[in-house]
Write a structure and sequence with these properties.
Helices cover 32% and strands 19% of the residues. It has 115 residues and is α+β, with helices and mostly antiparallel strands. The protein has a 4-stranded mixed beta sheet with strand order 1-2-4-3. Strand 3, helix 2 and strand 4 form a beta-alpha-beta unit. The radius of gyration is 15 Å and the shape is globular.
Length: 115
Amino acid sequence: LVFRTSRRVKGELVRLLFLHEPSSGTKIGFAVGRRQGNAVVRSRGRRILREAFRRLLPWIRPGFLFAASLRSSGLTANAREIFDDLKVVLDRAGCIDPAIPGYPPEFETEDTSVS
């Protein structure tokens, strides 16, 4: 349904297809084409994209169906760049509610260094 009838928004690194379906909750699917790289590269891209959505989920308006994928340039990008691009794409699509406190979220990294 999302691939056939949705609206599409392209960012520098992320391609987003979305459909407003008020009767359902927010659902997110991830797709990376086989031609974009080997299994390791595609899996890394899906993991980073999934994490970016997880961090932005509190600000996403309910009732959207998403299909997200990385463009070829996104497969070589780091997690911060993908997060920032996804934030811009979701905002441009009107899927973000900026009235919720804490917006815009920043990409935070955990400090794993040993003192």
